Amino acid sequence: MADISMQLHIAADPDTVYAAISTTDGIHGWFTTTAAAEQGVGGAHELRFPGVEEPWRLHITEAEPGKRLVLTGENGPWTDTVQTYEILARPDGDVTLRFTHSGFPGVDDAYRDFTYGWATKFTQLKAYAETGEPAPFFTG
Question: pTM for this one?
Answer without folding.
Answer: 0.96
